[in-house]
């Protein structure tokens, strides 16, 4: 059964199933929900109703393919179990409520639709990442969408956004500072915006809106795509023209964190022309929940990642020219049916809209077409990236270096009997593994990267053992030129920002508060906007830091035992530099680097699960 009937205020904790179903009371959608099977978990409902205003905006960002919702039974996953069909039903009900209240309700997205789950990355050979999953976005009434950096790592993906995605939104898919080079008339290459640079439109209530869609200063984009720096964009003539006329409010959507990035440049450029016009900013990219106000007549909201958060913002507009602070409210919703039903004042039996059901069914059909339920084995327990210390039994990174790589890389490998050390970068793992069936979808979610494994034979054990500490910055004779935090950030790496956020909430909570509270695990946000932002109250996720590089346990032997030094190709040049810094007997070059196995990083977990989890 899916959920008990829900009565506002009458029940504190509902019984719902994370992905649920079996015998479904309203028979007509039993097929649509057949994958929603056990286990049954309790979800805490929101702590209080939403505060509506004149302008209300629902925000998604960094969805990265999580349109089927989070499907595992361990917390916090069930809190994020709503799928995109449930979300569509929620939006439809909220639109109705907005009409009844005679206020505006808009829907915006801040980008990063690509890379993250099987729905986007599990396409058969010859396909294009996220092409099919993206078709569900245009079934929702999005008012404005902005491009993300993950739309730009591969030219074919950016081209697909330009040719097939943007046109569905009729000028509302924005890429103010992002161009793509395509064949123009007569075949000459021309650089054009991927979507549109700005949009001007009126809300249902007739309010005038001017919108931009800005990307942070991203440098990891593919050839034939162009990202213009934010400071250059605000000096463009088109920019001045676009913001000249005063709207009722500016709606600045963009793939750029609201804090510690370049929103102030955009904000100040608009403020210089319009000293009091309300400016509503919707950011993204750093995968955190965050909010701040650049002045009293503006607000900037960022709504997390992976459909673990849906943002809600409301503003009361006053008269033109007013200098008073705006009344603003923001809320971070846990995307699940309990949340959605609570805020749309629906029971489980009256919640699904026909459109919502159609989307859920469409997503499941896509999952079937990509064979995402293909089971490799059964994970005996949860393995997490940062909720368990490294090294430990619960650490996914420990599982990888202690068990997965030593097993998977030596299957059918003629070098299996030669002692080795296997090194990888911990950034090659993207998401936790949870107890239960381990499927093709779980494999792509945990590690979507197609890195190959290489090795250098006959490395003396004493030298090989020293590589990892140098890579991790512990040694001082490596002379490595690893990239700086700024360079990694510019290329799109947000692990550090997201990790710092988790660390901060973990430290703030302390063990006493954690134990005293009878709450499920989840985000506990402290931001710079007034009041409490989280919609459902949780106890914070534990956080343990981990090193940038990890390795298997070195074999025993004398210092000069010759071993295979195995590593992912992604870090090959760094490994060579470190080796040459550690010793002078031999100068290692790329010609010493050989292919170790044909199994790629995004396959090792599946191979391991077939061998050990069956
Ligand atoms: C960039 O696109 C143009 C036009 O389609 C093409 O002629 C050129 O080869 C592309 N450049 C690269 C590096 O692929
Ligand atoms: C983007 O495309 C527009 C339209 O073709 C062009 O005028 C502009 O120079 C391009 N901008 C960049 C930064 O390439
Ligand atoms: C108005 O908002 C600004 C910025 O958030 C704040 O610094 C200021 O104290 C507020 N003023 C009043 C009167 O609340
Ligand atoms: C890890 O697992 C092993 C084997 O099951 C067990 O002996 C050990 O106590 C566990 N360690 C921790 C920290 O749970
Ligand atoms: C190893 O070889 C066997 C027999 O050829 C084959 O069935 C199996 O798929 C191979 N395993 C891997 C992981 O390549
Ligand atoms: C809260 O405590 C009660 C009683 O100990 C327990 O039954 C319930 O499952 C707990 N709820 C959560 C969310 O942990
Ligand atoms: Zn992202
Ligand atoms: Zn991003």
UniProtKB/TrEMBL annotation:
Keywords: Signal
Gene Ontology annotations of biological process type: nucleotide catabolic process
Signal peptide extent: 1-22
GO CC, alphabetical: cytosol; extracellular region
Domain Calcineurin-like phosphoesterase residue range list: 56-288
Annotated Putative 5'-nucleotidase C-terminal domain residues: 382-576
GO molecular function (one): hydrolase activity
A Pfam family matched in the record: NadN_nucleosid_C
Keyword match Transport: no
SUPFAM superfamilies: 5'-nucleotidase (syn. UDP-sugar hydrolase), C-terminal domain, Metallo-dependent phosphatases
Gene3D superfamilies the record matches: 3.60.21.10, 5'-Nucleotidase, C-terminal domain (3.90.780.10)
Name used for this protein in its record: Metallo-dependent phosphatase-like protein
Native organism: Multifurca ochricompacta
Lineage, top ranks: Eukaryota, Fungi, Dikarya, Basidiomycota, Agaricomycotina
């Amino acid at each position: 059964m899916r959920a008990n009937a829900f009565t506002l205020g009458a029940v504190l904790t509902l019984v719902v199933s994370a992905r649920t179903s079996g015998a479904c009371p309203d028979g007509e959608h039993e097929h649509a929900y057949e994958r929603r099977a056990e286990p049954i978990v309790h979800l805490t409902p929101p702590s209080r109703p939403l505060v509506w205003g004149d302008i209300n905006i629902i925000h998604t960002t960094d969805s990265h393919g999580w349109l089927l919702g989070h499907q595992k039974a361990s917390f916090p996953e069930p809190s994020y179990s709503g799928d995109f069909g449930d979300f569509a039903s929620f939006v439809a009900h909220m639109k109705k409520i907005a009409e009844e209240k005679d206020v505006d309700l808009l829907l915006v997205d801040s980008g990063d639709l690509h890379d993250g789950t099987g729905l986007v990355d599990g396409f058969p050979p010859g396909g294009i990442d996220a092409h099919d999953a993206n078709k569900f976005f245009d079934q929702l009434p999005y008012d404005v969408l902005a491009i993300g950096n993950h739309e730009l790592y591969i030219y074919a993906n950016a081209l697909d956004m330009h040719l097939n995605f943007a046109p569905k939104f009729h000028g509302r898919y924005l890429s103010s500072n992002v161009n793509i080079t395509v064949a123009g008339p007569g075949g000459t290459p021309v650089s054009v915006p991927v979507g549109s640079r700005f949009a001007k439109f009126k809300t249902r209530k007739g309010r005038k809106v001017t919108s931009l869609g800005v990307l942070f200063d991203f440098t990891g984009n593919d050839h034939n795509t162009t990202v213009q720096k934010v400071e250059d964009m605000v000096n463009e003539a088109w920019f001045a023209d676009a913001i000249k006329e005063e709207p009722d409010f500016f709606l600045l959507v963009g793939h750029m964190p609201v804090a510690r990035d370049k929103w102030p440049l955009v904000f100040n450029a608009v403020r210089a022309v319009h000293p009091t016009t309300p400016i509503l900013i919707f950011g993204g990219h750093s995968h955190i929940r965050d909010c701040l106000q650049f002045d009293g007549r503006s607000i900037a909201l960022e709504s997390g990642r992976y459909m673990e958060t849906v943002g809600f913002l409301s503003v009361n507009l006053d008269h033109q020219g007013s200098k008073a602070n705006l009344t603003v409210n923001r809320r971070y919703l846990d995307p699940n049916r309990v949340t959605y039903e609570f805020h749309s004042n629906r029971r489980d039996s009256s919640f699904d809209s026909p459109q919502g059901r159609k989307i859920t069914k469409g997503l499941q059909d896509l999952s079937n077409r990509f064979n995402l339920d293909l089971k490799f084995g059964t994970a005996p327990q949860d393995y997490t990236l940062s909720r368990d210390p490294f090294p430990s039994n619960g650490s996914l990174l420990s599982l990888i270096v202690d068990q997965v790589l030593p097993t998977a890389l030596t299957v059918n490998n003629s070098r299996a009997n030669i002692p080795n050390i296997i090194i990888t970068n911990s950034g090659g793992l993207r998401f936790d593994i949870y107890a239960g069936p381990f499927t093709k979808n779980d494999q792509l979610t945990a590690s979507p990267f197609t890195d190959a494994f290489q090795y250098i034979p006959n490395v003396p054990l004493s030298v090989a053992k020293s590589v990892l500490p140098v890579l991790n910055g512990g040694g001082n004779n490596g002379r490595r030129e690893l990239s700086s935090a700024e360079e990694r950030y510019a290329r799109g790496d947000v692990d550090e920002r997201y990790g710092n956020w988790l660390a901060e909430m973990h430290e703030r909570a302390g063990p006493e508060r954690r134990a005293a509270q009878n709450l499920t695990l989840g985000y506990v946000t402290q931001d710079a906007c007034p009041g409490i932002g989280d919609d459902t109250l949780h106890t914070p996720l534990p956080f343990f830091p981990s090193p940038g590089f990890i390795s298997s346990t070195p074999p025993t032997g004398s210092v000069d035992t010759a071993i295979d030094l195995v590593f992912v190709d992604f870090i090959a040049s760094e490994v060579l530099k470190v080796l040459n810094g550690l010793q002078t007997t031999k100068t290692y070059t790329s010609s010493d680097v050989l292919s170790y196995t044909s199994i790629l990083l995004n396959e090792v977990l599946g191979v391991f699960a077939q061998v050990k989890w069956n």
